[in-house]
Amino acid sequence: RGLGRYEEAARQFEAAIAKRPHWFLPYLHLGDLHLAAGRPYDATAVLREGVTLCGPHAALHATFGRALLVTGQPDAALTQGREAVRLAPDHPLALTYLGDALAAHGQRAE
User: Fold this and answer.
1) Helices 24-36 and 2-19: crossing angle, nearest 10°?
2) Which of the residues 4, 44, 62, 95 could staple to 67 if both were Cys, CB 3.0 to 4.6 A apart?
3) Contact at 8 Å (CB) between 22 and 54?
4) Whole-prediction pTM value?
């Protein structure tokens, strides 16, 4: 039953992306959905597309960085985390995921 809800939600977010491909929010939510479902490579793909098409949004860059970190790409994750914090220095998600990326590099803070 849970998988059906995942698929239904994914279809809804994909429809929203198709309708408004330059709106960041459906990419963010679909990426989060994929991460929560244990599908980090799917998350990385959709978030990469969102970052490319939607312009700068701190939450989108932060979540993309998280997905990159989960898929074993710590250098790219750090780049996205830094961009997220540059865009919104006090954004809690950006700060958290940048911290995760820094930790993956053995660093504590910037």
Assistant:
1) 160
2) 44
3) yes
4) 0.91
